[in-house]
Each structure stands twice: as structure tokens, then as C-alpha cells.
Amino acid sequence: MFRFPLLSTLAAAGLMASVTLPTQAQTTVLRHSNWFPEGQVMRVNVVDPWKAEVERVTEGRVKIETLPKVVGSVQGQYDVARDGQADIVVFSNGYTPGRFDILEVGELPFNGDRAEIFGPALHRFYTKHVAQYGEYRGVVPLSVFVVAPPELFNNQRKIEKLDDFKGLKIRSNSKGTTDLLNLLGAVPVSRPATETYELMSSGVLDGTVMPPESIPPFNLVEASRFATIVPGALTNSILTLAINEKKWNSLSQKDRDAIMAISGETFARQIGEAYIEGNEAAWKALRDAGQSVEVASPELMAEMKTALAPLETAWAERARKRGVKDPQALLQALRDEVKAVENGQ
Fold first, then answer.
1. pLDDT of residue 264
2. Are 100 and 135 in contact (CB under 8 A)?
3. What is the pTM of this model?
4. Do 82 and 307 contact (CB within 8 A), yes or no?
5. Beta bridge partners of 190
6. How would you classify the pairing of strands 238-244 and 88-92?
């Protein structure tokens, strides 16, 4: 049998290896800190599919793995991402008061009650008008969005006039909601959604401001004897899908572009659409349980609008301190973006 000399054989093998063996692309694994319960509509319909889509659009170069439990506290998810304890988080802007004074314009009342419209408009508004002020230090907002507008739920009485708010201990999810509840005469209690059931069951809370869809998964149907729907939205809860800034910058431009293409306004719209079915199911569950579900009357709306007028003035003052020269023009820009999205622009 013919044999190559040993030296020639080794040289040939080395040459073949250097020519024919492909370089394996390294997969970047992003750690996701999740605090949404099983069955929660945003997690099931949007966040989990988005994670799978990230892997697909980056051709496997970026993969997101959800950690076994939430890292840190629910209120501290912004810090968790900023400090690199996890890479990907969804956090409520309202849990970090004082950091988003300008973007809090999106929490002002009566500006939009359709999350599938208001959410994409808010992300567009942030990108065009607010990003320059640097409110997201240390993280990159992949999508700024809203869930279905929170409505009023309580276990004490119907809300038919402004006086009916007096003394009700209502869970608040943000500084803006706290200010709002104070102006209405209620007693706001700042606690995360995950603690609402226990606090309402024990009597610490009389009610909550919460998206209707969240009532069933947080086991609050029985406790929510009276629901009040506010046309135009009492407020909107701003949330952010965020990634640690250093981790984001470590990804290739190609992968960053691919991820942003499925995030931003697209993600925000999907969140809003996901809540439509969930809201309808929640209203049905409440009615089937014999609970009261009523739309605020024109008389109540007029009283509420008068009582809540100071919120816009207070926001404008905070915005000026943050460097906004014309807060009223900025508010109008948000309303213009809402109209543009509503018109399909």
C-alpha cells in the first residue's frame, strides 16, 4: 500500500484543516428577568414569541433565555438591566419616579384609550422628541409602549360622583397615578401588581388601578366588585422593553438592526392588540361573577377633568426643569403622533 511520508501527511492534514473547516459563529445568550405570571397576555402573546423571533432574525447568533425567577424586585427591573444583573427586562416606568419626568407626558389623562394606537405613537414620540434628553441612562429602550389603559376597580362602592373616591385606598403603579388619585380624593398606595391580591384580601387596599386583562390572572375577579371604565383613559401605564446598554453595543450592527426591526412600534402595536381579547374576557368574567361594570357618566367625567387639570401644569413644570423649552408643544407633538398612527400614517 502506498503511504505518504509522515511529514507530508501531517502537512497535508494541516492544510486541509485550515482550508475546509468552517469558523463557527458564536451565540450570544441574553439573560431575561421575567416577572409576569403564567398566562399573562403580554407574556404569552408577545414577549415569549418576540424572544423566539430574535433568535430567528439573527440566524441563531442571539438567543434569549429566561432566568428561573425574577432578578431583584419588580420595582427594580430598570436597575437590574442598567447594572447588568440581567440583560433583558420589561419594566414599568412608573416604578422609578424621577427618572422619566419628560416621558411621563404619556401618563396624562384622557389622551388615548386604545393601546394598539397609543403604544406605537408613544414609541415614535419618544424616538423623535424625547430620546435627546437621555432619560434611559445605562439601558437601550427596544420598545416604549403601553398596556391596555388601567381602569378603576374597588370592592366598596360604585363610582358615580367625585365624592365617591374619598377615602378609597387604591393601588397606584406610578407617581403620575398617585398624583391623579390624590386629586380625585382617593388614598393611593404604591405597590406592584403582584401584591394586589394579598393586599385587597387583607383589607389593606380597597381597590386598584389596573388593565382589565390583568384582573383574572392576578386572581382579582372576586375582589373587584365595582369596575369603572373611563373614556379616553384615566391614565396610561408606560412600560419599556430594555436591554443593558453595554450588552447591546456588544452585538453586531447587523443583529441590532434585525432586533430593532421586530421591536419598537411593531412590538408596541402587538402588545396593544394582545390586550383587546384579554380585556373582553376580563369584562365577561366580571359580569359572569355578578360584579358591577359601568362606564363613567358624562357628569362624572366633567368633574374628573376639572379635578385633574393640575396634572398637565405640574408635568410642564417638571419638563422645563429637565430642559424642555416648550412643554405645551411637546404635549401637542404626542397628540399629533397619536392622530397619525390612528390614521395609518
1. 98
2. yes
3. 0.82
4. no
5. 172
6. antiparallel
